[in-house]
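tool=predict chain=A
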Amino acid sequence: MLKFFRKDKKTQPVETVFTAQDWISSIIEQSNRNYYYAVNDIRGNAAFVKVSDLPVADRRALCLELLEVIPKIAQSGSGPLPSKKPEVSHLARTRIQVAIALLDGLIRRKLGFEEADWMGWFRQLRITTDAMVRYKGVYIGIESFPINYAIKQIEYHLKNHEPSKELISFIQEILKWEEMDANSGRGYWGADMGNATGKLRTILAPMEGVPEFQLLTEDMGSQFNALSESIQDDRKKFDEIFHLASNATTGKPSKKFTQSVTALQDEIGPDVYRTFVQEVLQMALSLDFQTKTHTYESGYVHTEVTYLCKPSQQFIKGLVWTMARYSDRETLRLLTALCEKSFQKIPGVGPAAMSLGNACLYALGNMRGKDGLGALAALKLKVRQNTAKKAIDQYLTVGAEKYKVSVEELKEMAVPEYKLERGEKFISFDDYQLRVFIDGAKVANQWIKPDGQSMKSVPSIVKNKESLTQKLKTVRKELKDIQKTYSAQKQRLDNLFTYERIWDWKSFQRYYLHHGLMAPIAEKLIWKFTNGGRSVEGIFQEGEWRDVNLEPILTLNEETSVQLWHPVHADEETILKWRELMIQLEWKQPIKQAFREIYILTEAELNTHSYSNRMAAHILKQHQFSSLAMLRDWKYSLMGAYDDGRYHEVCSKFVAEYGIRAEFWIDEVNQDDAFNDTGIWDYVATDQVKFIGRDEQPIPLDQVPATLFTEIMRDVDMFVGVCSVGNDPLWIDNNGARQANRDYWMSYSFGDLSEIAKTRKTILERLLPRLKKIRDKATIDGKFLVVQGKLRTYKIHIGSGNILMEPNDQYLCIVPARSAEKSTDRLFIPFEGDKGLSIVLSKAFLLAEDDKITDPTITSQINR
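tool=predict ok
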């Protein structure tokens, strides 16, 4: 209780006793809030300001009194109900929330705790929390009691005083409390538990040495502790690092942390330490996502999906920091995979382990050499979070400045070759060999016998010999890495069409033509060579560079500059020649280039001047659109059915080389129940496309560089072509109840072709004569591929893949299987990645022999 003096009506001083309960009441009276989640909710409150101005001794006493009154508030505000646990009234709950918020605010400041004060405070904290367990109507959560700020109070004291035996004994007692054990189920210490125990052990360390580290978590504690028992030498040094790692609470490691860890690693042996931590990271990577379901007394069922509990995340985060000094392939693989998994989105939660993912980004960005930066460049194409992409950009920019190159060149420099030569290598397994090679879009492998003959299965000697079995496991991990890197590099190179990057001849040869991984991509693309003001386009065919007429190009030398050929800068005749050559050579380009779409300004766009409505008024599946946009390096935030005042969002892409930001405007589609469990709209509608300059003003469309305009419009066309509900044959039945939506589905499903669909039509015109099974049964009629079956005639829309049946244009619903592309993978298609073309062709093959169809869901429609 705190005594104050006030003046009564006769201006006589009168002693007034102001209790903790009075302060709580005063704060509530001077606030209009109903809930108080933390100290920030009472900052600025007049009563709290008065409390903050009290003398140190009074604030210290108030902290202890607050702990004593919290259970009393719960008891006084509860009433026993038949067959139910005590419930706490709303008013009592509010008072408890204010009490904890007030306690949090007070103990953050230096309060001059002596040892006896501090020990008394912690004893009362335990009594308070034990009492609160009996009152389930009050939620005492992870953040409820600020134990780390409380520990900070004794740390202040110990800066100028030696700890007494009583204090040391008490801290040792605290560390044995059940509440400090993550496996005890006493969850009110929550995420702060690891920090608190680490701080307390740090206080004890000078007196009792480094205690043996134990990871007390359910998810990976037992596995880690068993592994740590295998440490033969330098266990104390390992334990020091483990304790440091378990206290990794900041965004990045401090200089002191890094220096301490580096010294300990050197004493242990860098390779010994690396091998052990790699096992721990693999352990964390192997853990599955856990689904827990809790049913409350009200009947509400809550399902929670988690990956690594908070203390485990924090510990692994600290270990990840310690791996920044290593740049070997296994460390790169583990950090990259762990980063991907950490940023994987959990519905209703967000990234699985964002702090751990950020730690992986830090380690890769600060790794020796350029390999870590290359891994970051590949990760940028995979992670979805804009904050993660921004962090990657910052690491790449710093790395580019460090090595005095551009960011794009840095990405090229960091691409690993995996000891490949032109996309191929041989790995020996005693007398057998495993051939690893890039075959189209896939990284394949083939076993070869000692006599040079190929075989389909793994040789028995490899299965039966332990050393070869382990070697094969390592090779298989590498094959996955090669596949991921190869796919990421194709995507990166495809993005370069926008930037019009130019290489000198020496760099082009080093990073592409003579690069083990990049050569298979470069050798299938068309390049533009400029020398002395003259330019020529060519391909690498039969070991030399040839032009569109397959004549050798003889003018390539050190003075030559190289650029990806883009059809937007070529005339129609040249484009047609390259397309015919691709068909003639049966070249399947890893990136769509010869058949790449071109977008020329329309009359409507010239009239609107500063924006394009070409891709407006489409209905897209929002989650699919978001994923594809991020893959193409656009920024977009999902819109949801919550009252935040937003009814539209801008999907944007900033192209630094031009200093221009492209904007694709997106509107919500507010339909009944058209949102998922987390409140995110299932569908969105498209609007205009704009280009914004550095001055934040719209740029007239006729002043936008031709390459940038065509690439941006191609992206937007792709978003619509892939994500439109018109591509979903079931959508009209499941979600198309409203007439406006039905009209859109019909108009898109069977309407005019987009530029991407027009390219698809061009390819079909060239492919049909080569397809023996359907060339006599199929023709192209406008926007349809018309197939004459034995039962009916079918019109497959070349854009959407949806089908009408003659004579009455009856709709035929066929849902593509996941393996639709496999049914056409033996067909020659001059580029990779057009799933829509595969669907159209697979449906054509199916319907050409409609009398052989046995699926009743299809036959019932045909025979109706």
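Confidence is low (pLDDT under 50) at residues 1-10, 79-85, 182-191. The first strand starts at residue 2 and ends at 7.
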